[in-house]
Amino acid sequence: MANLRGLQEGIVNSQIWKSVFRVGIPNTNRKRVLAVLGSLILHLHPVKVRRSGVRMSYTWCMGGTSFFLFLVETVTGLLLMFYYRPTIEYAFTDIMDLREQAPFGIMREMHRWGAHAMVIAVWLHMFRVFMTGSYKPPREFNWNVGVILLVLTLLLSFTGYLLPWDQLAIWAITVGSSMARASPGAGNEGPMSGLVKLGDIRLIHAGDDARFALIGGRSIGAATLLRFYVLHCVVIPLAAGFLMAIHFWRVRKDGGISGPL
Amino acid sequence: MTFIKDFVNVLSAGSISFLLLTSIFALIIFFNLMNGRIRSAGGFAFIGFGLLMFLAGIFVPPLLYLGVAYFLILFVLARLGGRLWDTKIGLWLFVFGALAFGLSMLDPNFFLIAAKPDNVPIVAMIFLLGFFTWLALRKAYLNDTQLVVGGIPWEKTESDEKLFTWPDLVYTEMLCMILLTIVMIVWSVVLRAPLEEAANPTSSPNPAKAPWYFLGLQEMLVYFDPWLAGVVLPTLIIVGLMAIPYIDTNPRGNGYYSFRERKWEISVFLYGFLVLWSFLIITGTFLRGPNWNFFGPYEYWDPNKLVPLVNVDLSELMWVKVLGTSLPKLWIIREIFGLALIGAYLGLPPVMAVGPFRRFYMKMGAARYYVGAYLFLIMMSLPIKMVLRWLFNLKYILHIQEIFFNV
Fold this sequence. Notes:
The structure holds two protein chains of two kinds. By secondary structure, chain A is mainly alpha-helical.
């Protein structure tokens, strides 16, 4: 034991370790403060937190779980991007390859189950925040950011659903995206879109309505796949990342993890 | 065994399970919201409602099942009372649920649906939702028993004490991350992600389902036109959620679990979240089979199941069936009943503002009151439409083909 302790001391006091972490083992209150303040990641947190806010039975840890699953999705998603080409020729066969050839390949599994888990975690997070009345002033705005993040989570999952390009994928997206056709004023089968016309020519038709914009064509095809791929891998994650930064920042600014006033 | 399966099959049909959930929900909420004489009158009303279902069951047999289940749940709830939130009872409920699920897995039809890879998370979600609803209400109940005698909520006793983020919070997070990583790895190794045959735009599966989290919306398509169910209502769900903190001006219950101090908010939210959102997703996932027909959990998904299409519009119901004449030509006369009904429904908030809800109107102010009231009415239009469909086969209340406006 003495040797192990000595080894630990040696590592923690070495120049390499200290250059990275600055503080040694946080065994005094001063060092505990510095450990949090001195780290970019840890300083998301305040130095001190309410005891009630640390309780798992109070927070259910669902906000943290959502964020952690987002990171899991990012990492596994990046790995999947090495194997996957978003074209009709290759999409399905790349997934097949991944399934059959990649050694110990559970990245697709983890990505899919993580996506489902993330949707559930975000719902439960919202549920907890509601049940503790944590959307009340001064946290109204952060609740709104949270609602948008919830929508983005669903859209992330929705756009990702198409990418394997199997029967499950295209028909789920067909059903899901056909709704856009009925948008009032903007879908070719929606109410009031018949009113948008130039003389006798209807301006909203199947070739330029809301659904066309969403899927890039009259039916699910190559353009849809590319569109959803870009949305799934670039646009929505960036938007979600940006909003998450605001969300976490506002948690701090609005008084930390909620608690009774 | 077959009897129990048949019982559950009949019971889970939307017309019954949804009504059952809604009536039990209304019952619990009612008893918690009201007090004094209204409350005891409500007691009789609920027993009367149950008896009515038995009576109606003579003509419509499934309602008999509803009556039985209704009184069964009523009896259990009345016996348990506040003990429902004891850990021991909670554990028993969980064991009962797990046992029921485990035994159901022996049924081949049930197994086929519940063990579908994409449905596994939804099964988990049912248990998680049950557990967390119970947990939240248990903590609310415990706090309320303190608040009622002038005490302070449990969170308050701990909120003034501050802990260092390192180690207390950081270690909790660390443990959560490790645990989640293990869960994700085990889950990924045990269960393979589904992959069906390559996309084929010419052969559509039956049923064609949206991703599972949108199945509540797909279920709404049965009762509303696509522009409402697929575009307007989802938008309003988002708007409604975002409006919550601005409509709810109740300053109490901020930062701790409590039901007593936020009865209305929690009741409406729980109904929306658990019944209108989650239950419809569960229905859409497990109980909707080929042609989007209803199938009990132990029923075989027969693509040839015949379901009579007997839905009628309100106009036809009133003019043809009740008054015995033909439909008037002019739509404004033809739809007069629907227009009156919708007008009365939308006229409720201003009437209530001077009537029984005057207290709310004064407290909230006009803007909050009206936005809140209309969002609530639109939310409630879904269960109303569903119940009307099941009881009277009503398709549209307003069916104005001339201007493409059907509600």
